[in-house]
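Reminder to self: tokens first, then the designed residues, so the page reads top to bottom the way the pipeline ran.
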């Protein structure tokens, strides 16, 4: 004998009701509003840390150049700063040091580093004063990080 189903059309309906969809979207919106600022703040903090590390690496390369110059009795070892003070790839490849190398060759991979925002760091010479020798200063215009060195 054949049996007929007594299920109603409602039993076969599938999907979300409008209320379920609104609640789900609301919850996702609240989560996004809470998580996004924290994520952006973490990204900014990471870029500041990266900038500090990069400036330290740039500084160390120039200090190593200074120390090599001491062993060779060279006093004027600092590379001339670019006209706009930006440590670009072109400047680093074109600026020849006292020993014949380029500024790029002071660093691993023979490539100068840019900041986390992909902009060049700023390099300027510090003049000799009555109490201090000449030195240099490195700045990151995007994060405000700065380091100076005077022997």
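Designed residues (151 positions):
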């Amino acid at each position: 004998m054949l049996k007929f189903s007594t299920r109603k059309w409602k039993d076969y309906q599938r999907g979300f009701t409008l209320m379920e969809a609104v609640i789900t979207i609301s919850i996702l919106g609240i989560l996004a509003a809470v998580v996004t600022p924290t994520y952006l703040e973490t990204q900014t903090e990471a870029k500041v840390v990266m900038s500090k590390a990069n400036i330290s690496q740039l500084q160390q390369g120039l200090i190593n150049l200074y120390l090599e110059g001491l062993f060779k009795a060279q006093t004027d070892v600092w590379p001339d700063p670019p006209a706009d003070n930006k440590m670009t790839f072109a400047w680093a490849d074109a600026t020849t040091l006292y020993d014949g190398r380029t500024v790029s060759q002071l660093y691993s991979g023979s490539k100068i580093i840019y900041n986390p925002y992909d902009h060049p760091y700023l390099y300027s010479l510090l003049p000799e004063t009555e109490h201090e020798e000449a030195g240099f200063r490195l700045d990151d215009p995007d994060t405000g990080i700065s380091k100076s060195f005077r022997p």
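The mean pLDDT is 88.
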